[in-house]
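Per your request, structure below.
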């Protein structure tokens, strides 16, 4: 009798783990993004709670067109008796995109010699899909209709925008797409739909996959969710997310109410990038060209920005002059660059002015339509070699005729000399387009003033291709109040005299205390929207017992009073939110910790900490007063400090102690500035990024051992104050060598009191280091032959016998593994294909290990953790 029952076979390309250990399942990938494609076997353990057992899995991948077998993977897995649902995952590909080519592929799966199924996937070649650009299709129409489980034929469908809850069985989404790949012989279309209610709770999930072979100009399909019982839907506002190529491309809102309301045309939808609602019948009006006077008038009507308006006006006047000269026979063939830099804090109107500048350029005939295409670093930079340039070229293609607006442009160059960062490649592609491109494009680089100054100096070619730099100053208090009045009129509310006076005081206070991240207009609009919400809550509470036919005055419904604004500014910012324990997440995080090699004492302390937290929650203790988050990690490099920090943050998130549970890694360089007055701001910025999670400071002792007029002490003082003021809001882990960390804690009296917990990371033992090495080899799909395994044991034993004070532990072993892997790969490359066998390809011999140097420097930086092979 079989020990398992297959649940499903899935395909995924991203290794990101989602809720309940799930992945981002999909079956269609583009060539430019395809690195490894994985097959997942999910099966029920019939021996649950009885005994452990082993299963042998065989996964083979085939090219359907040629019949070629691409890989033959074998794996022996122990199924734990405590696990009811088991997953086996294996993949094939390369670290960089380019290996997979267009076509249809198949994974064939066998468990214990029994063929359990096949699952297909596709590689296409249309290009990257982003929230701003889709080379595969455009959405033509969006319609919703109600039907039974069997569906409804096209002629019998009644399209709705509101559904009657008592009569609704299945809510169906009908999409008509305009095909942008009409020459493709094979068009596999895969779209995923998520149904959500108004609170954001997941209602349903539907996946749609169809293989088109007739090259249609329009593609129409429908898919829905519901129940035959007419009791599945309840009155509420809902939304359907449309996901294509792992990218959110549209959100379709609809309502379940007490009656059906028909839709007389395609429904509006929101793009994945959050653009305004789009209605097809209005499409011709979106890019309607404006004349110069109209565009200039819109610019002049903006509140404040006097210097900006003057600079743009002068620039536009000069362009008009050049155009006039050209019309009168003067040679004005010399190209006038339209590329510009916008600097300023958030909410100062940079994006708004960019849109109007596009209209001005279009009205002068300098751009064909003047539209604006907004992008950020994530839209331009690829994850792997070869992905960045195509993404940038696609963004340029979409923006042609208008403005390519790059927000926070400094993020393209602020990663230092990291060889794995491709931001600089973006700049190089843009520079080539700005110099040698076909024109009809203006590039605007936008961001904070200081960062943009640094950005302009990164590449000498930038300044020569930029026409002008326009600075957007912070709005004055009077200008902010004008914006408040404008937003109030727009939302149909008004302020009483005393509430407006109070608001003015708060705006002045915010202006005086503003930092580099002051929100300007965004701050004010947030206040207005919050005041309107408080007005609504107060009004409904006061009139909750009034009859429906009661007449309310416009003043009652629209006037914001003093208490509405005081409530907005008077909320307790430090109020602790009690979050429930996420048991699945906690189980997963503890399992990750348990899988780490060694670290017996660390695991024990963390286990005890979890027990204490559970106890404190049970008896109702205030966690912020009875439990300290801040911790000291001591030990040599390569002992897993960073890995444990990441897992510990996840454990605290699962326990409800931390809200986000993310890890922000930094060191002295990331927190200490070079000049007086800058360190506190730099340290605060790093802490802000870690709020809700963990700030991991590696080699923390470097903050105190510089001597003289060092700014490290200012960093520590800022850190200590924030740790006290925002107790329980984030965790700080300071890490470093044992002796140095002891001196670090003694350097400031406040450090000892803030860090009352220390985890000592001991050096790995011989067996643990060998396990780590074997695990590293297995990650390379390599297995040690017996004589090689014996040689590895002897090498590690000699290494430990001669280790120094700053022994590198797993890092040193990694050097050995990397060199051995390189030698093994070279040996295979020098072996003819006829002589090369699968066993040879996946085996490491003693020859590959001999001669590998295990010498290491006295000190190493950074931190890394390793899992045991057991």
């Amino acid at each position: 009798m079989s020990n398992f029952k297959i649940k499903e076979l899935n395909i995924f390309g991203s290794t990101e783990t989602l809720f309940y250990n799930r992945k981002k399942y999909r079956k269609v990938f583009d060539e430019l993004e395809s690195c490894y494609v994985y097959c997942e076997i999910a099966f029920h353990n019939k021996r649950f709670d009885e005994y452990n057992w082993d299963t042998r899995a065989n996964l083979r991948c085939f090219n359907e067109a040629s019949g070629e077998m691409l890989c033959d993977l074998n794996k022996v897995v122990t199924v734990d008796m405590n696990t009811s649902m088991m997953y086996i995952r294996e993949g094939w590909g390369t670290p960089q995109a380019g290996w997979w080519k267009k076509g249809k592929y198949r994974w064939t799966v066998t468990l214990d010699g029994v063929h359990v199924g096949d699952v297909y996937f596709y590689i296409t070649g249309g290009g990257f899909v982003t929230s701003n650009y889709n080379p595969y299709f455009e959405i033509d129409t969006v319609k919703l209709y109600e039907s039974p489980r069997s569906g409804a034929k096209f002629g019998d469908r009644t399209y709705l925008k509101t559904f009657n809850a008592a009569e609704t069985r299945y809510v169906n989404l009908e999409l008509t797409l305009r095909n942008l790949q009409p020459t493709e012989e094979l068009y596999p279309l895969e779209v995923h739909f998520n149904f959500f209610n108004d609170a954001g709770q997941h209602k349903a999930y539907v996946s749609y996959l169809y293989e088109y072979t007739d090259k249609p100009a329009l593609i129409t399909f429908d898919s829905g969710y519901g129940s035959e019982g007419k009791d599945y839907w309840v009155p509420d506002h809902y939304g359907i997310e449309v996901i294509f190529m792992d990218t959110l491309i549209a959100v379709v809102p609809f309502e379940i109410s007490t009656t059906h309301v028909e839709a007389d045309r395609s429904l509006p939808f929101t793009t994945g990038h959050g653009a305004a609602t789009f209605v097809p019948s209005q499409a011709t009006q979106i890019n309607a060209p404006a004349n110069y006077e109209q565009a200039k008038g819109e610019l002049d009507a903006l509140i404040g920005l006097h210097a900006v308006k003057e600079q743009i006006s002068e620039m536009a006047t000069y362009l008009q002059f050049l155009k006039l000269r050209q019309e009168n026979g003067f040679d004005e063939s010399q190209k006038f660059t339209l590329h510009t830099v916008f600097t300023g804090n958030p909410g100062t109107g940079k994006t708004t002015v960019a849109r109007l500048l596009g209209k001005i350029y279009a009205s002068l005939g300098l751009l064909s339509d003047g539209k604006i295409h907004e992008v950020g670093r994530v839209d331009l930079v690829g994850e792997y070699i070869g992905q960045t340039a195509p993404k940038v070229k696609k963004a340029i293609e979409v923006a042609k005729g208008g403005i390519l607006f790059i927000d926070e442009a400094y993020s393209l160059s602020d990663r230092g000399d990291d060889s794995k960062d491709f931001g600089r490649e973006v700049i190089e592609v843009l520079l080539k387009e700005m110099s040698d491109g076909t024109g009809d494009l203006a590039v605007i680089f936008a961001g904070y003033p200081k960062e943009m100054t640094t950005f302009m100096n990164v590449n000498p070619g930038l300044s020569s291709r930029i026409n002008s730099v326009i600075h957007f100053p912070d709005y004055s208090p009077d200008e902010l109040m004008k914006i408040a009045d404008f937003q109030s009129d727009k939302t149909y509310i008004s302020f009483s005299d005393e509430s407006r006076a109070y608001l003015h005081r708060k705006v002045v206070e915010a202006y005086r205390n503003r930092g580099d991240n002051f929100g300007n207009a965004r701050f004010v609009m947030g206040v207005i929207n919050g005041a309107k919400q408080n007005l609504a809550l107060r009004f409904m509470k006061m009139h909750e017992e009034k009859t429906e036919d009661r007449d309310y005055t416009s003043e009652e419904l629209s006037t914001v009073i003093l208490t509405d604004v005081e409530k907005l500014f008077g909320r307790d910012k430090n109020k602790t939110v009690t979050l429930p324990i996420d048991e699945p997440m906690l189980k997963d995080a503890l399992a990750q910790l348990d899988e780490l090699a060694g670290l017996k004492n660390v695991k024990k302390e963390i286990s005890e900490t979890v027990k204490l937290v559970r106890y404190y929650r049970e008896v109702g203790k205030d966690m912020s007063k009875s439990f300290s988050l801040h911790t000291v990690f001591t030990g040599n490099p390569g002992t897993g400090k960073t890995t444990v920090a990441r897992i510990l943050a996840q454990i605290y998130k699962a326990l409800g102690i931390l809200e986000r549970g993310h890890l922000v890694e930094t060191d002295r360089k990331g927190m200490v500035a070079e000049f007086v007055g800058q360190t506190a701001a730099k340290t605060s910025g790093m802490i802000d990024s870690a709020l809700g999670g963990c700030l991991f400071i590696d080699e923390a002792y470097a903050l105190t051992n510089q001597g003289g007029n060092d700014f490290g002490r200012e960093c520590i003082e800022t850190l200590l104050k924030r740790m006290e003021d925002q107790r329980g809001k984030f965790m700080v882990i300071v890490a470093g060598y044992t002796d140095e960390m002891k001196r670090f804690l003694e350097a400031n009296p406040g450090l000892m009191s803030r860090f009352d917990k220390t985890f000592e990371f001991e050096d790995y033992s011989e067996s643990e280091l060998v396990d780590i090495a074997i695990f590293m080899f297995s990650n390379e799909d390599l297995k040690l032959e017996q004589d090689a395994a014996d040689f590895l044991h002897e090498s590690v034993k000699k290494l430990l016998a001669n280790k120094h004070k700053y022994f590198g532990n797993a890092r040193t072993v990694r050097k050995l593994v990397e060199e051995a892997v390189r030698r093994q790969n070279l040996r295979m490359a020098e072996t003819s294909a006829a002589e090369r066998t699968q066993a040879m390809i996946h085996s490491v011999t003693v020859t590959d290990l001999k001669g590998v140097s295990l010498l290491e420097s006295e000190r190493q930086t950074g931190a890394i953790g390793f899992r045991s092979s057991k």
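Residues 272-289, 571-576, 855-870 have pLDDT under 50 and may be disordered.

Regards,
D.
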